[in-house]
Write a structure and sequence with these properties.
globular; alpha/beta; binds zinc ion
């Protein structure tokens, strides 16, 4: 399984792109960045977009990907996939003909560039060539983490979350897991902000990883660009062999 990091951060900075991961060239896990990281041909290869939640740093790229599809007369739609409240938020608050066009009706209702798909909570479901289990996590809006595997290898993706037990419980006993992609947004001195916004700090990351199997590498994403050096320094003191920062533009081969 190949995971290409299109965006590794919790917002946009000069060379820092919002969170998005392309799995096996066909499935996006979050879409904070798409068109700024993929060629048009690569964009047209995307079939599914798994969206963890409706915050802009996870969906901004979806707006422009939809436009690419519409402007290039793409042969097939992308399927935007998540749990019900996230799909509803995208329909009603983003692709609502006010913030952005309703691409589920463009170029026509019968042949649109975006289709929506709602996943059942806590159940493993087929998404393209992958199996995906969405698990509700602890964020300021309805949000899912995902357990993703291809039948042999897999990974756990936290999306945005504060401390959570459900995600780790859902992954317990699964074989073939190769990595955890875990969020961390703010340095330790902003723990009150992290608590209010429901994000992790390095100290909270340290506590979270005590809940998961010790042999699983932990790749950290979603640091806010303003705090990268400080937060990375704090993370490096946890366990530098096991806890690493996700590298933007790198492809991980699980
Ligand atoms: Zn975010
Ligand atoms: Zn968020």
């Amino acid at each position: 399984m190949k995971i290409r990091v299109l965006g590794a951060y919790g917002a946009e900075g000069l060379t820092q792109r919002p969170s998005a991961f392309l799995v096996n060239g066909r499935t996006l896990v979050d879409a904070g960045t798409v068109t700024g990281a993929l060629s048009v041909a690569e964009q047209l290869d995307v079939e599914h977009v798994l969206v963890s939640h409706s915050h802009l740093d996870h969906i901004a790229g979806l707006a422009f990907l939809a436009e690419t599809l519409a402007c290039t007369s793409a042969r097939r739609p992308i399927t935007v996939t998540s749990v019900e409240p996230v799909v509803e938020a995208l329909r009603k608050a983003v692709f609502n003909s006010v913030v952005w066009p309703d691409f589920s009706q463009i170029p026509s209702a019968t042949g649109p560039v975006i289709k929506y798909r709602t996943l059942a909570d806590d159940a493993e479901q087929r998404v393209g060539d992958l199996w995906v289990t969405p698990v509700a996590v602890n964020h300021s809006v309805p949000a899912a983490g995902f357990i993703v595997h291809d039948g042999a290898q897999g990974f756990i993706y936290s999306g945005d979350t504060g401390p959570t037990d459900e995600l780790w419980k859902a992954a317990r006993g699964l074989t073939g897991l190769r990595a955890v992609i875990l969020e961390c947004a703010f340095p330790n001195r902003l723990s009150a902000l992290a608590e209010a916004a429901k994000h992790l700090t390095p100290e909270l990351v340290r506590r979270e990883i005590d809940k998961i199997p010790a042999d699983l590498p932990v790749l950290i994403f979603h640091i806010k660009p303003q705090f990268v050096d400080e937060t990375a320094d704090e993370l490096s003191r946890i366990d530098s062999h096991r806890v690493r920062l996700v590298e933007q533009d790198k492809t991980y081969d699980l």
